[in-house]
Amino acid sequence: MNTEYYASLLHKLRNAIMEKMRKMFSHGDCLLHDNAPVHMAAVAKAAVKECGFKEIEHPPYSPDLAPSDYYLFSKLKKDLQGRKFDDDEEVKIAVMEHFSDK
What is the pTM assigned to this prediction? Predict the structure, then answer.
């Protein structure tokens, strides 16, 4: 992967979000990615700005998303699969219920 390809993916991501969730898209939507060189390059950072994303700082070797926690996301995905939500608040409630049962 190079920076130009990554920048094009960011634009495709923005377009897909706008197409699927037009009402919910706003400039300043957050983007979290690691500190890989392709993500830190000037071309990629410019594409993030052009797309209107806000970058969340993620320090190297951060324990925020430890590999030991990844199993939680697959179980959450299974639990939420096939459900429809009318707004963000319903999603937050469903996620909180999922984790409170654990």
Answer: 0.52
